[in-house]
Queue: 2 jobs
Job 1
Amino acid sequence: MALLPILRYPDPRLHIKAKPVEAVDAGIKKLVADMFETMYAAPGIGLAATQVDVHKRVLVLDVSEDKSQPMAFINPEILSREGEHIGEEGCLSVPGIYETVKRSERIKVRALNLDGEPFELEADGLLSVCLQHEIDPLDGKVFVEYLSRLKLSRIKAKLAKQARITA
Ligand code: GNR
């Protein structure tokens, strides 16, 4: 297994649209294992392949309190949405920034598992939010882009300052 470097916003590679996985082969299984290791080490509750500069439709998450429920989604699709959920989100690609985002409350998702078999899942609560948050980067979208231009420009200035301090 390997720890993968995580891209930081506003890296333009975060806006690349990920391609569907054609076969869940050894390379994809290795990618998923490395993404779990990277996510747990960060620590985070989710990670999209885009964030580690791999532009394939793969995401991992674990919203349990004790890291006991690793879940991998390959070629995830949101089939339906219901309700509205407003909550604070953070992102490993936008460190130190926590902002309120409006999402759907419940979603139904279809994806492939690590055996390449399709499955469907109905999600609510943190699982639903995390899935919606992780599918966005696969489509080239980062959560701060839901915010107003004023908030986004303040965040960009803060991140630029952070980068100067850590460089
Ligand atoms: O660790 C993370 N926390 C989080 C909190 C609220 C909503 C979404 C998330 S996902 C994030 C990890 C990450 O960077 N995912 O892309």
Job 2
Amino acid sequence: MKIAILGGDGFCGWPACLYLSDRGHDVTIIDNLSRRAIDKELGAESLTLIASIAERLDAWYEVTGKTIGFRNIDVAQDYDALLDFLRAEAPDAVVHFAEQRAAPYSMKNSRTKRYTVDNNINATHNLLAAIVESGLDIHVVHLGTMGVYGYGTAGMKIPEGYLDVMVHTDDHGNIEQSILYPSNPGSVYHMTKVLDQHLFAYYAKNDELRVTDLHQGIIWGTWTEQTARDERLINRFDYDGDYGTVLNRFLIQAGIGYPLTVHGTGGQTRAFIHIRDMVRCIELALENPPARGERVKIINQMTETHRVRDLAELVAQISGATVAYVPNPRKESAENELFVSNDTFLSLGLKPTTLAEGLLHEVEEVAQRYADRVDRDKIPAQSLWTKNQRAGVPELS
Ligand code: USQ
């Protein structure tokens, strides 16, 4: 399959590119390298030393003899370049990762809020409009988020995108309808993925675009079989207060003897998926597109749910780390249950990597290996959801 990967230099995009190339697909990365620019802006580098995009692609060719193309295009800003690319290359599918993906970064200030909305919504809409203008039949696979649903429970498992409801009509009749599951985003970033959903629904209806929207949980783990083949292929690993996600942060905190930063009571339950399962899910989604004229195919891309404090206790048990309960910088429920349906990927053959089997390995592999690159000042979460809060800076033991 000929596949263009928007955002192919990022944390999910890069391992997905290597995996799909390894599986024999013809892959081109489209990326404006914005994530590397945000590293500089925040003064927070990836824990792993990532090679330049040119070095990455040369290394992949050296190691496998396979070529991955690269175009530096800002898809949110340069519509014409995107359209020209689609017309010239006519990919079978576009995987769309080209969005600012950190909730804390999106909540820092009005500039980062506006950047997140402008970048994410324009990127998605430019892609959809360009596909229509190109006249090509291109399957869009988009990386969405579990966070579009919020993290509550309505006495049922969160379904895969749609909720069947019965509407009581004015003339005392009943009409059955299938609607998008009510959204309840918890950050400006998550809200952009809610807005994306509506853009997809509209273009699937009006232009019969084929769209798959993957509602992904929190990634944990850092490496895939492909990124481990050469030091220059290594994936990025974010541990800072803005981009680091919870379990990966706990792993590196454990590795350097920093108290694990549990926000609030740690009663937040979230959905998780290992990075190696993520790349497989992208492939499964590409292999199973919706038909033209069908509604957007929404798949929940997660394998387990866990409570934050349970994760902290588990990591502490394995590593001997201490746990620090810090004031929660976010506005979110202190405690929640979360039950999620993930039948589609399981029925398509996904074999989940479980936390129980993979966690110890990750701690040893990454956290201890790169511990000396950690800047401890970058660990506390400083981005506040409401500005009268105080950031949670744990006491060091
Ligand atoms: N948390 C802590 N301590 C920390 C960091 C986070 O207790 O040091 C808590 C947060 O308060 C939150 C939970 O852990 O309750 C998850 O935070 P996170 O930073 O791991 O994840 P989140 O902000 O939700 O965003 C991440 C990705 C995003 C993706 C989302 C999937 O950055 O791109 O969409 O996970 S989901 O959470 O399922 O919506």
